[in-house]
Design goal:
The complex is a heterotetramer, with two copies of chain A (292 residues) and two copies of chain B (218 residues). Chain A has eleven helices and four strands; from the N terminus they run ααβαβααβαβααααα. Chain A is of the alpha+beta class and 292 residues long. Chain A has a four-stranded antiparallel beta sheet with strand order 2-3-1-4. Chain B is α/β, with parallel strands linked by helices and 218 residues long. In chain B, the strands form two sheets. Chain B has a six-stranded mixed beta sheet, sandwiched between helices. A four-stranded antiparallel beta sheet of chain B has the order 2-1-4-5, covered by helices on one side. Classes of the chains: A alpha+beta (292), B alpha/beta (218). Chains A and B meet through helix 1 and helix 8 of A and helix 2 and helix 3 of B. The structure holds adenosine-5'-triphosphate (2 copies) and magnesium ion (2 copies).
């Protein structure tokens, strides 16, 4: 215990006695980790946006003709009481016809010749439950009395799932590569800070220090550097997030998207990874100089 | 006790030591001398385990250095004081920290380390410089720091490689008195030097090296 | 001239005499540049895909009723001879009705009561000219005899332009940040390799070297390191590209997209940037040690 | 010609030189001596422009070191040979490269550099070691490399700081002969040392320093 304290003191002393080098390497480490962090932040947000945008399937719930107002209210009640369903609007038979006309555009002649309105009234609802199978929701809603049919676009869902998969798989692959790169940069940087102290290691061994006596302060140093770098990166990432969140109007012009920060788990992971890499880098670098 | 049996050492072909055999008894005081490049430093470094002999055997207190494990070398070095010809001080640590290091590696407790370190620095006239860094010292001061670090742990064996090369005659005499005192307390002392003043008129045993061979003893 | 040769020889000698440190820093530099390269590669491709996917506006060219086959052939000729237009298919009046029916689904009753087919025949064409204003193309095509009207979706084009802008602006911002990060990492790494040689600089000055005599080999060293790192990164990027191109089926499942390599300009820029950063890093690092 | 007028030097409060004034004529040979920490190294480094005086003036061949620009210092140093007490060799360059460097900085052409470097190494008995690196040499060999580097450029002034601390008496005599030869050819030589053997019995001028003051000259 007293020994650990000695080693920590020693590590802090070393850092303060090699300030310049440590500052430089700290800079490198935090920037590298920050790059990883920005990537994670974007991934988390893009996933969120896509989920939000494509994950809310729109369904049309067609009603029987000539339902009394009271029963329509009952159906509305039934729909909105179901979790995950959000009623967007009610389209009466008349509105349906008007909409169809405008949608058909120059082909709207088609509708002119009609004697009676063949279109059903409907509720347009959004389902915010991307995990449940839409087919089962459809079946469930079709069980409500007064509902004739529920429609949604299979093609859309497929495409959405494809995009999600692309973002996930691509994100994971890129993230993995980026992780490897950052791992490499951080450990290399730590190595460089240690290689310049080759002589120090040699001298310590010459005065009778065991391998571990020499190594431990270096490992603690690496760990401290990594941890500090990780924390710095996290703080910078938060600043980046704030800037992004307050300026989203500028570059996310066409939709009002929410910007969220990376979840706690990632925050811990970033600092943890950074500390671990610092430690690992020291371990690898120090190992080289033990042939004295 | 130090025993060398037919020790050879060559660096990539060029021999630095050839068939060196001798024995230093426990508590003895020995000079190793010879011209520049004779192999004095190499000899001392081999006794310290800092260099491996190409062939032959070295026994320190009965321990064969050729068969020793890394961890044991560290333990052995804690009982051997070595004054390096090129000092080998840590430039980014203060004088105090440099000397204290030799005790800290043994796991001694901090207050003991502090006391002994101060004492060693005082005996070498360096106490005023304890907070200075090696590069802020004169050559002779640095050499004395190296000596302080070697003696601070009360070593069983003291190996000093040209310990007075940067010292004036008065200090040289003082250092010799210091080594004698340490020797009196039972430490085995081996000093490599070509300082004639150190050698002359003493009854102390001298080993003469030339081109890696022991050419004379007296 | 002979002097420059001397300095280059000196720089190469220094590199070979500090091999380990140079290898480590070379690794860091190439990885950092590679990260930038992968980002550029993705940006180039994503931009390409989006352009490809949204850039080809689909237009419907509606024809007059009862045109003789011959005139339809003339119109087809006129359309396909126009550059940038690609005829995707011809939809006859009958086909149009069938399609409408299936599109209307449960509302197809609507069509049942019709006595005559009110739908016009049409060509569906794709315009692969995202820069020209679609409105002018529309006007141009409406001038062809026999064509009644040309339709396309304004909303779609707006959305597409929004996505393009998002990708461009976002890409530039991220790329800029990434560039800054890489700049920082590369110069820092070079600094670390030089700081461990503080003593060397001091000694050279003590034997009478002028500032520039000391600096130039370091600058050349930094430049060589940067250039080598950049080239290595480019080669790795190409490998990455080949892997991506040959496995695109796996993660780009839902469309068959072409993967292209970064254009020549970017390739030059990558190596150039890297070399410049190596040079700059040396310059900044060396400058510090000239108070001897 | 070297002139010092009331030179003071202190390092953060502690004085290393106090009111040092003297004059070394062109082509003179001077010893600077005094105990460890007296200020010999500091004095030589000040004459070399490696350290700035806290006050006072130093003139080298009429050039005031206090008013000189950086570029000029480099030019001056090319004409001054300096043997550093701690050698200051480049450990990642060979002996040959270390010595050649002193000529290369002057922009001399490669074949001249090669010839002169070999010659200097030969005169110090180091030609066999030219491809070795400093850390592969004995202390005395390293010191001779430092001397070779200082004399290779035929300096106008040679400043040698404890140049024989790691050399045996025979080599010490050889080096002194070498310095005398260089001196004969017109070089001004200043040697800082506490080696009594160097000093005794010569008619050469000696400046005695103690605690930063000139206490005696003879
Ligand atoms: N690491 C090494 N690699 C190659 N050669 C070496 C190495 N160390 C020493 N030598 C050579 O071995 C010989 C003996 O060196 P050593 O340092 O033992 O001499 P020394 O007696 O201590 O000399 P000095 O009095 O000059 O210090 C020298 O010729 C030296 O060049
Ligand atoms: N850079 C420095 N910073 C602080 N103090 C210094 C510095 N250089 C020298 N000193 C101090 O100045 C005094 C004179 O040092 P100097 O090196 O000139 O002595 P010296 O005569 O060469 O001694 P030696 O014979 O031991 O080499 C010493 O007390 C030393 O500690
Ligand atoms: Mg030696
Ligand atoms: Mg000195």
């Amino acid at each position: 215990m007293g020994k650990l304290l000695y080693f920590i003191r020693q590590a802090l002393l070393n850092i303060s006695q090699n300030k310049l080098i440590h500052l430089i390497s700290l800079g490198t480490i935090s920037i590298a980790i920050l790059i990883l962090g920005v990537f994670l932040l974007l991934l988390v947000n893009v996933e969120g946006w896509i989920k939000n945008w494509g994950g809310s399937i729109t369904m049309s719930v067609y009603l029987e003709d000539n339902l009394p107002k009271r029963q329509i209210a009952v159906i509305r009640q039934a729909l909105s009481s179901r979790e995950g369903v959000e009623i967007q609007r009610f389209i009466s038979k008349e509105e349906a016809l008007i909409e169809l006309k405008s949608a058909l555009g120059p082909q709207s002649e088609l509708v002119e010749g009609l004697t009676r309105n063949p279109l059903p009234a409907s509720f347009e609802i959004a389902i915010r439950e991307p995990k449940t199978d839409p087919a089962s929701i459809k079946r469930e809603l079709e069980g409500i009395p007064g509902v004739v049919e529920v429609q949604y676009s299979e093609a859309w869902i497929k495409r959405f799932r494809g995009v999600m998969r692309l973002v996930r798989v691509g994100g994971m692959m890129l993230g993995g590569l980026l992780c490897l790169g950052v791992l490499f940069i951080v450990t290399n940087t730590i190595k460089l800070t240690i290689y310049s102290r080759k002589e120090e290691i040699e001298i310590m061994k010459l005065v009778g220090a065991t391998d571990w006596f020499v190594k431990i302060p270096f490992l603690i140093e690496g760990f401290i550097q990594g941890a500090t770098g990780g924390l710095l990166a996290l703080v910078s990432l938060f600043v980046f997030y704030l800037i992004m969140a307050s300026n989203k109007g500028i570059f996310l012009s066409f939709t009002l998207l929410e910007v969220v920060f990376v979840p706690h788990f990632y925050m811990t992971a970033i600092v943890g990874l950074s500390s671990f890499l610092g430690f690992l880098g020291s371990l690898m670098a120090v190992g080289r100089f033990f042939e004295v | 006790m130090i025993q060398l049996f037919h020790v050879y050492k060559s660096f990539g072909g060029t021999p630095a030591l050839r068939d060196v055999s001798f024995r230093v008894r426990k508590g003895e005081f020995v000079f190793v001398t010879g011209p520049s490049g004779a192999g004095k430093t190499t000899l001392l470094r081999i006794m310290f385990g800092a260099e491996k002999a190409s062939s032959g055997h070295i026994l320190i207190n009965g321990i064969n250095l050729g068969r020793i494990r890394r961890k044991q070398i560290a333990l052995l070095r804690r009982r051997i004081g070595f004054v390096f010809q090129d000092f080998k001080l840590l430039n980014n640590k203060t004088i105090f920290q440099n000397v204290a290091l030799a005790l800290e590696v043994t796991g001694a407790n901090p207050s003991y380390v502090r006391k002994k370190t101060r004492q060693a620095l005082r005996s070498l006239g360096l106490i005023k410089k304890e907070e200075a860094y090696p590069l802020q010292l004169s050559g002779g001061e640095q050499q004395r720091v190296a000596i302080a670090r070697a003696i601070v742990k009360n070593p069983l064996i003291l190996l000093a490689d040209e310990p007075t090369g940067n010292l004036d005659p008065d200090l040289t005499r003082e250092i010799m008195v210091l080594f004698r005192t340490i020797h009196m307390k039972g430490t085995t002392v081996v000093v490599a030097t070509h300082n004639r003043e150190l050698l002359k008129g003493t009854a102390i045993r001298k080993i003469y090296l030339e081109k890696g061979r022991v050419i004379k003893e007296d």
